[in-house]
Amino acid sequence: MDENTALLVNIADKHVSVIGEHGVWVIEQTQVTNDSNDQPISEGVSHYLTSGSQADIDDKQQLIHIELANEGVSIDMQATYPTYHQWIKQACREGKASRKQLNNYELVLLPSSITDCQKILKNQLSYQSITLRLRMLGSSL
Predict the structure, then answer these.
(1) pLDDT tier at 140 (50, 70, 90 boundaries)?
(2) Rounded distance between C-alpha atoms, residue 70 and residue 103, angstroms
(3) 3-state SS, residue 114
């Protein structure tokens, strides 16, 4: 989110909407499990909601009934977010999970399908439904 964009959250009505110049990244936690070393792994789904998009929030705090804006905001992801775009490109090209270590965490991106990957890389499809996993790495203390 930038200084010209906002995510409006109406808790009473369980509704969110995006206003402003660009869009908002939303990462939903969908599941928490433990790996073989009993370290927690959080899985989530990412959505990029452009201005005018809206959604409802269900009882599990997940977005449902997502309505994307009719006229999406076109963002050159390669120019604006080159590292993230490169990461998606690598995962799509290899057709498997791509991993990045961030301090004490490992973030894993799982491509949904080759067709979706191609559309994402051509800016024909939003970054919706890209599975992300966050795992806390073992501490050396």
Answers:
(1) very low
(2) 39
(3) helix
Asked if 103 and 84 count as a contact pair (C-beta separation under 8 A), the reply is no
Residue 10: the pLDDT is 95
Q: Please measure the distance between the N-terminal and C-terminal CA atoms of the chain and give it in whole angstroms.
A: 35
Residue 108 near residue 97, CB atoms below 8 Å: yes
What is the rounded CA–CA span in Å between residue 47 and residue 42?
16
34-91 residue pLDDT tens:
888 887 777 777 777 888 999 999 998 888 888 877 654 455 655 666 776 777 777 7
Residues across the chain: 141
Task: Report whether pLDDT(7) > 90.
Answer: yes
Q: What are the helix (H) ranges across 13-113? A: 77-80, 82-94
Report residue 139 as tokens.
Answer: 């501490």
Which residue's structure tokens are 């789904």?
A: 45
